[in-house]
Each structure stands twice: as C-alpha cells, then as structure tokens.
Amino acid sequence: MKDLSAKKLQTITLIIASVASFITPFISSAINVALPTIGKDFNANAIGLSWVATSFLLSSAIFLVPFGRLADIYGRKLIFNAGLIIYSIATLLCAFAPDITLLIIFRIFQGMGGAMIFGTGMAIITSVFPKENRGKALGIVVASVYAGLTMGPFIGGIITKILGWHSLFLLTIPLGLISLVLSFIFLSGDWREAKGEKFDWKGSLIFGIAISSLMYGFGQLPGTSGIILTGAGLLGLYLFIRFESIQLFPVININLFKTNRVFAFSNYAALINYSATFAIGFLLSLYLQYIKGFNPQQAGQILVVQPLLMTIFSPITGKLSDRINPGKVASVGMALLSAGLFILSFINSDTSIYFIIPVLVIFGIGYALFSSPNTNSIMGSVEKKYYGIASATVGTMRLVGQMSSMGVAMLLFSIFIGNVEINSSNSDAFVASIRTAFIIFAFLCFIGIFFSLARNKKNNNNDHSGSSKIS
Q1: Which of the two residues, 345 and 127, has the higher pLDDT score?
Q2: CATH for 6-200+247-469, options being 1.20.1250.20, 1.10.630.10, 1.10.10.60, 2.60.130.10
Q3: Any alpha helices (H) in 246-352, and if so which ranges?
Q4: What is the pTM for the complete model shown?
C-alpha cells in the first residue's frame, strides 16, 4: 500500500520482521528441550540428536549469503515472502516426520526458508528506518528473536509433556502465515539497489560445498573422514575467497572485509561470540534432564531465565547503540559472556540450580549488550546496495558460529562418551565433556573481546564506515 506514511510503514515493517524473527528461535529452543523425548521416540543417540539442531543451521549457513545477494538484485520483499512460504511447508513436514532421518532432511528445507528470512529481515528494517532510530528498531527485532528463545523452552516443555514434540512445529505455522499476509498487503517496497547486476552462481556453489564439507567434517572428528572433510572445507573457503576477489559481481564483496574495518571486525566478533555461546542451551538442557533428573517442562522453566533477560534488555541496548559507539557496548557484552562461561566451567554432577541460574542472568545481559549493538554496527557500516549481503553476512557468521559451537559439543561427545545414548553408566564422562566445552568456550569469548574492541581503533563513525572505499 503505497499511500502509507513513513511512520506507519516503519511500524508495520517492524511488526512483520519481529513476527518472522520470532518463529525460528522459538522452534530451535523448544527442540533443545524436546530432544530427549525425540531421542526416545526414534531411539536416537546423542550425535543423531545433535544433527536435528545442526542440520537446520548448516542449511541456513549454506543459503544465507546467496539469498542475501539475490534479495539485493531481485527484491528483498520477494525473497522474504518466498522464505516464509518454504519455511511453513517444511515445518508442517517436520511435524509428521516418521523417523530421525526424515526429520533431519525436513529441517534442512526449514533452514533454506529460514535463510531467505534471515538474509532479508534486517536489511528491510535498515532500508526503512533512518540511522538515528535504526539501533532501536534492530533491538526490537533482536528482542523478538530472544522472545522466541524465552518462550521456546517454557512453552516447548509444556507442549512436549502434554501433546508431544510434533505439536511444537504445528504451533509456528500460523505465525509464519500471519507475517506472510501482512507482508503481501502492506509492504510495497522492492528494495533492489543492486538491480541489473548478475548473480554469482559459481561462487555460491563453491561456498555451499566448502561450508558443507567443513561442518559435516567437523562433526565427524576425530575420525579420518572428519579430518579429510574438515581440511577440504577449509581449502574450499580459501578458494572461495580467491574466486570472489576477481569477480565483477561477487556473491559477497570481499573488499568489505579488506577496506571496511568496522564491518570486518564486527563480523569476526559475531562469529567468535556465537561459536562460544550457542551450544550452552543444548548442553544445559541435556545436563538438567540427564544429570539432575528434571523433566522437559522443568528444564525449560530454568533455561528461560537467559532469553527472558535478553528480550527485556535488547531494545534498551539497541537504543543505547544509537547514542554510544556500538562497538564499545558490544565489547562489554562479550566480556560478561566470557566471565559467565568461566564460572560455568566448574559445573559437576552435584551443582545446584541456584549456581546455574545466576550464570544464566549474566548470559542474558551479556547477550543483549552484544547482539543488538553489534548488528547495528554492521548494518550501519555499509551503503544501501549492500544491506542484503550485510544482513546475510552477519547471519552467516551467526550460523557458522552456531554450527561450530555444536560441532565442538559433538566432537567432545565423540571423545568422552562415544556414539551411544547418555545414561547413568556414562554420566561422569558426559559431565566432563560439557565442562571441557565451557572451558573452550570461555577462552574463545575472551579472545572475542579483543576482536570486538579492534573495530574502534580507526573511524568510530558507525554510519557507512569505509563504504566509500567500496566500488
């Protein structure tokens, strides 16, 4: 509807993006709580259950950058709506999956639809909102993500206990349809600043193969096939960077990383942050149920503390990043996360939930301080024609980081307990594996503080920093 005022368009766009941003994290966090139940239904081991979460992340990471680029060329609304349709259909299929293999396959298609949503949502918000209000708007969208994370464990635990895990998927379909209808009716912009440019299919294919090999190989470590595939993935990423550097219309402009310091180090910080933090919910969910004996509902009620605080504080920190250098705000958040992970590395079989809950509080505040300001820093550092790819790049960093985090968890499971179900006979080994994971994650997050601070060494202006150097 082209007669909408700028203010109304901003409000409606924010509602659409927020609803769409709520769906995926809701499912992801709810599934974390339901994994033991899914495992019982399908007789799946710990590594198989890990792939229920990882398959979605892998698929999203493969398709995020290509769809972000396609959105810049053919229109962000078009890709956004197509993503909602694909995601809703895949979600319906997940609800009726007859075995663990098909569930993982359907989650892959879910990831494809999610990539189309991720790669355009933040770009559309950035296109519609002026820079003085952008951080607040992005903070609200991020808060919607965390609201999904908040309600996922709580509602997911209740639904899994009463109706079964299949119902978790069915619940989100109406939300996707609502966002889709609102988008068709009210969003009139195409936002095609790169219209007429060619799409780099070869680069997209190289990227997809490389990232698939890397992450699947990482999940197979320390086996020989894992070493070979991981090495092939790293080589593929190197070849991708070399190939993209000589393309006239690359799927991702490598110069953004070479000449735009704010863009580069903000993305590096995001990669490290999510590599160090995503598996926390997965590991604590298994710990609370297998070691402490809580049911899914009880585990969800405990884990809800972290995303609840993230939901409350993200709009505040987003607005704060409109006034204060967002890189500095994000660095404080990274420091808090590092401290929380270090504390959690002392966990054992006798650890009280009253030890865990305060750490979840630290995580919640730390996440809020990092995520919204860091996203604002990235989106504000490029010109309009790169909004789609910038949104997709930060999404890719997030998802690759999340996959890496799950990869570390799966690797440690393989080393400590092997390819078997978690039970009383290997509970000590399981606790040792998650304690080791938290030590590794704490170290990563500590290193991430310096990457986050590095963006502030030159050009503290977070609006189009370095974009003038990009041709």
Answers
A1: 345
A2: 1.20.1250.20
A3: 255-259, 261-277, 279-286, 296-303, 305-320, 326-344
A4: 0.77
